[in-house]
Amino acid sequence: MIVKSRRKMLTLGGAALAGMMFGAPTKARAATAFTDNDILNFALNLEYLEANFYYQAAFGTTINVANAASTAAGAPLIALSATVGTAGNINVPAVGGSKVPFSTITVGSYAVETAVEEGKHVQLLMSALGPLAVAQPAINISASAGGAFPTLATAAGIPGGSGFSPYANDSAFLVGAYVFEDVGVTAYHGAASLLTSAANLSTAAGIMGVEAYHAGLVRTTINYLDPNLTGIGSYTNLISALRAKLALAGLLGTSPGTYDASPDDYGLANTSVSLAGGSNVTATAIVDAPASESIAFARNTTQVLNIVTGGGAVNGTTVVSPATGVFFPQGLNGLFK
Amino acid sequence: MVGAGSVAAATMVGCSMPASPAAVAPPTTTFTDADILNFALNLEYLEAEFYLRAATGSGLQASDTTPGSASPYQTIGSVTVGSAAIVAGTTTAQAEILNEIAFEEENHVRFLRSALGSAAVPRPAIDLSFFGPLAVAAGITTAATGTGSFNPFSSFDYFLVGSFIFEDVGVTAYSGAAPLISAAGVASGYLTAAAGILAVEAYHAAYVRTSLTGRAITAGSATAYPYITAANQVAALRATLTVGNSAAPSTMGSVETALLLPTSTSSPSSIVACSPTNAVGFARSVNQVLHIVYGSPTVGVKSGGFFPNGVNSIFATTTA
Questions:
Q1: Pick from B119, B195, B204: which is nearest to A13 by CB?
Q2: Closest-CA residue to B134 (of B292, B302, B320, B297)
Q3: Hey, where are the domains in chain A?
Q4: Nearest CA of chain A to the CA of B6: how many Å?
Q5: Number of domains, chain B
Q6: Are A276 and B99 within 8 A, CB to CB?
Q7: Which of A126-135, A147-156, A213-222, B242-251 has the lowest mean pLDDT?
Q8: What pairing do the DSSP bridges indicate for beta strands A318-319 and B79-80?
Q9: Which residue range forms the structural domain that includes residue B146?
């Protein structure tokens, strides 16, 4: 069957849509031209990070070393065989992390499921990119002193942040997972309109959907365990505030894209809403989206880089590239870094 | 109206998938971006009516259902309420989540209507009593109405099953539609908007699936928590409605992921509906979505199920 190309110009039904007032999609900050592969490679860097985190938490191993737990769960063994990247930052095994001593079936099973899915995403992107796939860069997912997680937790203002380990127990793991998932959604969402092939768009949309399922899973579970938001629920607001601050800095003073109004990240704080013109009622924030339209946020690559490097992508209103820090101590590989 | 065929056995876990499950065959009629957004709007009208009534007992305001001046559809459809009412017996926390989802679906209706302007279609006729016959077709109950019939408003657990009918479908519908948006539409921001709505539908789907799974785990077994089985029966019904249609058999196969009930901390859950091959989310074609919401596997059907007068769309009739 012939798939209609997105590039085919179709009429928009006369004047019917003339009044559309959409903003143009946010362009990536790279000064040079980019291709679909560059976008997919940016995503691959992020998937390497997520997969290693979840593999450690669920199985106690990295994606490139199989153990009994990862094998039993059907998690792909990823050979770190890609060659594209900066010398010294090619196929460095991820540092840090350990298996979470899960005490509840709920949280343990979520970790296993998510790890398997993120592993498959790495596998898919490496396969799609073939010899153009970027190598895994140096990744820090450590909870040791100075590691990525205590650094981030301290910056967010989480109580006892300097000792925060997402590998300590079920609740801490959920907080660790919370760090990643909404970011994945905004990254893929921001990239959607930049992809030129329908096949790549279908794949990216499909992966974005899965990241949103993950985010929804984590937020639902945290909300269930801490509905009054006095514990880990409150941490989500701290983490979201930090991400929003880093994302705002990533705009370098320019106007945000249509779906990136500040703040572009909401934790689990309840809201007050009117339904069908009625009196206001209390609503949760399982979904990370603004109340104006309930459409998920979208970020550009500089914003995402600034988040995952803990501010390493900007210096005032100047881009810093390669961006390094926190999860990517030597920066990412590929064009967007 | 609804095929009374046998329920497929719960063997969907690990079913083999095509290599690229995300690509769908486009509609065979010529269409515009407005047609795509209007198709989505029909589905959002349905979801909004369901969730608003579940949360408040009332549906969309009239001003959120009217046709744009340029729409060929000028009649606002009525809603057959059936048993729709505020979900009984919810906790404060559950009610607040219902409020959130209803708010977001209402926002989606408003967003699409605003985006479409004078091209916006009005709300089509919606039948919320279809849950009854749907549950019979799925093998969940034997009564379509009255005592013993399925009522998603009768308890929070029944509400979760009712929501389950919609949510994975919403995600797959947007996923299938996204690549159909024209280059001009992309430049205008429609694709980004559709992707952003897709993400929110996925958050909703995750909420429903996580809740069903978590409550089943707490109960200890599917026997103790039959709602997880009921959800899987819904998924099986959706699969039978959309596979093997005569005119142009779907190349997608089943795009369902059954809900697992994990029994240890090292066994996986299945919160995410995605391909077991590459963990990419599913996409559905317009026809596949229609088969589900019309409750019919038949080609050439233009109404039924939740839409007794069909959707207000050039795609209203199933062609495959």
A1: B119
A2: B292
A3: 33-319
A4: 30
A5: 1
A6: no
A7: B242-251
A8: unpaired
A9: 33-294
